[in-house]
Write a structure and sequence with these properties.
This protein is of the alpha/beta class. The protein has 4 domains: 307 residues, 3-Layer(aba) Sandwich (Rossmann fold); 143 residues, Sandwich (Jelly Rolls); 124 residues, Rossmann fold, CATH 3.40.50; 56 residues. The protein has 20 helices and 28 strands. The C terminus is likely disordered.
Length: 712
């Protein structure tokens, strides 16, 4: 363990020593490092000395780490050293005039999606370092991540020390690239003595930091006179910007909605420290884009920047030379919120890393309602998009969290939830967790407001707060398919269910599982748009519905051969003769109208004489709404069991004989599950797990499937 040039973050003395001679990079060693001056001890986490603490103001960053730790779990040594290959390729690609030949050399026939970003990043790196000989230089990379940018300096001949706040990332980087020296710690209290590095760099890191001015001051402190501070890849906002304006930038940023704490800091945060020490610094400022002033790469003097930039937004990069020694006051450790080793030990266990942080959430973030508009950035980081004025629901992306004080916990969690319809229909699953323990998991129909009443039958192993997390799993990876709405979330002593369910943002499959589920045949009025009609017909036939079609005259032949389809009426073709439908009226009851656009819908409406309140318009992509309505929202219908979610009924596509055999198999499964259900009933009071409710859901779904097959 190389502790050369380090210092104790607590007393700022170079007195750190290791207390162990040998160690395993897969283990955590508490108090492995000690300060011989003040007695403060530090941990060795998966082979990386963690010389720092976790503070209260860093809790959001710790949630980010816990939410994304699994993807950086070290499993095996990566033999191909992919980062080094990428750096080598990007460097050759940058220098070569024959780009195709470089790609071919590395086995690529097409330009990979990431190359443009890495290429532009490398161009800027080469530009800022062109006059610096990196050979044999000592480099400190702050916010090193898993080591990509550090390796660029290493490949140029430098000796590189990496500082990374995340124990997961530093462990991954240390395992993959041991040629780099790794430390855990915070940038606003660097565990290194004064004037130790020739270069201090931070690539796309400053905007993640809790205290940018303090971190830049620390960077100057550990930099040698004559050395360079290089920052790249940051963006800034005008000094007059608000938290709401920053949140608006990230409202559709899926990484932020998944907990990555991206920020766009105010310009003054980047320059506060440099203003204070500007007489001892040679400051060069570079931008790629300044909105409203300069859309191209440009260099600026520091005086120009502090005069023009405070009212602008854009990208910013610094190349700063420390011309002389600067007397900079050193930092001291503040109060520790949670010890790094305590936090890290369960980081890779599902939910455990987050579980340890629940009681540390600041009071202002606890007991917020779903639609509360305050603290927009905090809500984004926990999966909630910005609340729209006047809306009684809130949109969440993929997973959403709410924190409550323990006094709010009661017998039942009531949740009103809807998953919007998407054209590429799937069977999404909603999972609800209480302090990372599953209490509900069920496939739900898109487009239906589900009123969920979930028993709180798990032990809450926290002392002050608890966490409710709602997760959506869908095979459709589009942003729209990963969204869901929450209207109400409350804790009750007993249920007070309604016998109504509401449809909103629904589609054809939603209607199949609700209003059409008991119908053996469906009558569809077909517009002249054949391509759209076939999409609607195929969606309906997928669920073995018999279709009665009303088609325009002259198109009978196109539909006459379709299985499970019967043409029951034709109407005049208004495309070729618009006046032909003036006195024509369809008397037959209709459930659905297939029309790809509002113009076709308007014409068909003239020939419908039935009650339009019972007719649904099927638009392109399967999106639907009441024919008589201008909105995709209705309240109608009785649920068989009002307290239960409306599950997806997977209709069998087998023949009658196969259906009978399948039904017997399902009955055997149900019999087995019923026995498990009885056992679960007997043990639920003692175990207090969610097993009973998970099993009940499976049992109920299988019963429904048997019922469907019997009806056939």
């Amino acid at each position: 363990m190389d502790l050369n040039n380090t210092q104790c973050p607590s007393c700022n003395q170079s007195a750190l020593t290791t207390r162990i001679d040998q160690y395993d990079n897969k283990q955590i060693y508490i108090d492995a490092i000690t300060c011989n001056n003040c007695g403060k001890n530090y941990d060795l986490i998966w082979g990386v000395p963690y010389l720092g603490i976790f503070k209260q103001e860093e809790i959001l960053s710790l949630f980010e780490i816990a939410a994304n730790a699994a993807q950086y779990q070290v499993k095996e040594k990566n033999a191909d050293h992919s980062y080094l290959n990428v750096i080598s390729m990007v460097n050759e690609y940058t220098n070569s005039c024959n780009k195709v030949a470089v790609l071919s050399k590395y086995g690529l026939t097409n330009i990979p999606y990431w190359l443009e970003y890495r290429y532009n990043e490398h161009l800027f790196f080469k530009t800022l370092t062109q006059a610096i000989d990196l050979r044999n230089k000592y480099v400190l990379d702050i916010g090193a991540g898993s080591g990509y940018d550090s390796l660029k300096f290493y490949s140029a001949g430098a000796t590189v020390t990496c500082l990374e706040f995340s124990p997961a990332l530093s462990a991954f980087g240390n395992a993959e690239y041991p040629q780099l020296r790794w430390f855990g710690g915070s940038s606003d209290n660097l565990p290194f003595a004064d004037c130790q590095f020739d270069i201090v760099t931070a690539n796309a890191a400053l905007h993640h930091l809790v205290d940018i001015p303090k971190s830049l001051q620390e960077s100057l402190r550990v930099l040698k006179p004559g050395g360079y501070l290089i920052t790249l890849g940051d963006s800034f906002m005008a000094d007059s910007s608000t938290e709401e304006q920053e949140a608006l930038i990230f409202n559709h940023h899926t990484s932020v909605l998944q907990g990555i704490n991206e920020q766009v800091p105010k310009f003054q945060l980047f320059t506060e420290t440099f203003k204070h020490y500007k007489d001892a610094l040679d400051i060069r400022v570079f931008t790629q884009n300044l909105y409203g002033l300069m859309p191209y790469h440009s260099e600026w003097s520091f005086e120009e920047a502090i005069t023009k930039f405070p009212h602008l937004a854009g990208s910013i990069n610094f190349l700063i030379q420390k011309k002389q020694h600067i007397s900079i006051p050193q930092s001291n450790l503040s109060q520790e919120a949670i010890r790094p080793s305590e936090y890290a030990k369960d980081l890779y266990s599902p939910g455990s890393g987050i579980h340890r942080l629940i009681d540390l959430i600041a009071d202002q973030f606890v007991n917020l309602s779903v639609t509360d508009q305050s603290y927009p950035k905090f809500r984004l980081l926990n999966g909630w998009k910005l609340q729209q004025a006047g809306e009684n629901k809130r949109t969440a992306y993929k997973r959403a969290r709410l924190f409550f004080s323990l006094d709010r916990l009661k017998n039942l969690l009531h949740l009103s939830l809807l998953i919007p319809y998407v054209s590429d229909y799937d069977s999404p699953t909603i999972t609800i967790k209480l302090n990372s323990i599953n209490v509900f998991s069920e496939e739900l129909v898109r487009g239906v407001w589900h009123e969920l009443y979930i028993p709180m039958v798990v032990e809450v192993h926290t002392y002050k707060n608890f966490l409710v997390e709602i997760q959506l799993q869908s095979h459709n990876s589009s942003e729209a398919a990963q969204e869901f709405y929450v209207r109400d979330l409350e804790f009750l002593q007993e249920a007070s269910p309604s016998n109504l369910f509401a449809l909103e943002n629904f589609g054809l499959e939603t209607l199949i599982f609700t209003h059409l589920k008991d119908k053996h045949s469906v009558t569809v009025l077909i517009s002249p748009d054949f391509e759209h009609n076939m999409d609607v017909i195929n969606r309906l036939r997928k669920w073995q519905l018999n279709l009665q079609l009303i088609v325009p005259h002259g198109q009978e032949f196109f539909y006459s051969w379709l299985p499970e389809c019967e043409i029951v009426e034709t109407y005049p073709n208004f495309i070729s003769d618009p006046a032909s439908i003036d006195n024509y009226h369809i008397q037959k009851p209709i459930q659905l109208v297939a029309a790809s656009n509002s113009e076709l819908k308007a014409v068909l409406q003239k020939i419908i004489s039935v009650d339009l309140d019972q007719v649904y318009w099927i638009q392109s992509g399967g999106y639907s709404q009441l024919f008589a309505s201008n909105t995709a929202s209705i309240t109608d219908g009785n649920l068989t069991e009002a307290t239960a979610p409306l599950p997806i009924q997977q209709l069998s596509l087998s023949s009658t004989n196969q259906s009978s055999t399948h039904s017997k198999q399902l009955e055997q499964k149900v019999s087995y599950l019923e026995k498990q259900l009885q056992d679960a009933r007997e043990e639920i009071a003692a175990m207090k797990t969610s097993k009973f409710w998970q099993l009940r859901g499976r049992w109920f779904k299988l019963k429904q499937m048997i019922g469907i097959n019997h009806r056939k």
